[in-house]
Each structure stands twice: as structure tokens, then as C-alpha cells.
Amino acid sequence: MTMKAPEGVAPDAPQIETAGLSPAASLFHSLSDPARLAILRHLSLGEHRVVELTEHLGLAQSTVSKHLACLRDCGLVDSRPQGRASMFSLTTRDELLEVLAAAERLLAVTGDAVDLCPTYGSATREGTED
User: Fold this and answer.
1) Which helix (H) or strand (E) holds 11?
2) Could you give the angle at which helices 34-43 and 50-57 cross, rounded to 10 degrees?
3) How far is CA 49 from CA 37, 56, 64, 79, 87, in A?
4) pLDDT at residue 4 is higher than 80
5) What are 59-75's pLDDT values in tens digits?
6) How far is the first Cα of the chain from the last one, in angstroms, to the nearest whole number?
7) How far is CA 124 from each of CA 40, 110, 113, 116, 119, rounded to the nearest angstrom?
8) I need a surface site. Which of 1, 32, 39, 126 has the fewest CB within 10 A?
């Protein structure tokens, strides 16, 4: 049985293993929004309620709640009830801080070239942020 090459791959090209990269791609996608990164950085200082995050970040409550739901679904944050509010915290603080520190080192080495990328750079996000 012959397999059809994935879209964008020449039929005679060697098959590159990509199935195992899906979780990593999902992780990086979860980190791809500046508001989510700001929330994660703030939560690295300790647990916070939504109201505290909205005050600190200057974002609408609905925006913060939407991003927290995404981060919780991705397993990066957790919440616990406290009265009528919820306290949010990082699920794996040390590992997340390692990833963010590695990203900062990579950005420093590349001169932030990725921010100028016509496909993924900041110019392509203008007007798309909440």
C-alpha cells in the first residue's frame, strides 16, 4: 500500500516524522498570544484572581477570562475556588519559566528577527489583538 505525500511535500521526498511534533506545536501555539504570555509571566509571581490580572495587565475581564480558559485547557494554569472568585496559578512554574527563558535567549541571539518575519512577526498581528 502506498501512502500519499502530505500537502506541500513532493511525492518522492523522504517522509519527515511530524506526528510526534504535534504536542510541541500545540504548546507553542498556546504561547503565541502576547496577552497569554503576559498572564503567564504575571502568574509566575504567584496566584491571582481575574480582577487582579485585569488591573495589572490593563485588559478587559472577558479577554483575561478567555485567555485563562485557553491556558487552563492547555494544562498550563489551574484554578481553585476562593469564596466567589477563583485563584489562578501556574501548573508547572519551573518548567514554564525555563521555556520562556530559553525563548528570551534565542530571541537575543537572533536579534529578534522573528518579530520582523512577514508571516509571524508583529506586523502581521497588528489589529488582531483584543
Assistant:
1) none
2) 120
3) 16, 11, 10, 9, 5
4) no
5) 999 999 999 999 999 99
6) 48
7) 23, 19, 14, 9, 7
8) 1
- What sign has the CA pseudo-torsion 40, 44, 47, 53? negative
The two beta strands, 85-90 and 77-82, are antiparallel
Pick left, alpha or beta for residue 89 (phi over 0 → left; psi -120 to 50 → alpha; otherwise beta). beta
- Which DSSP letter does residue 19 get? G
| Predicted TM-score of the model (pTM) | 0.79
Quick check: 87 and 94 in contact, CB under 8 A? no
What is the spatial distance between Cα 120 and Cα 14, in angstroms, rounded to a whole number? 27
pLDDT tens-digit readout, 76-109 = 999 999 999 999 999 999 999 999 999 999 999 9
d(CA 109, CA 51): 36
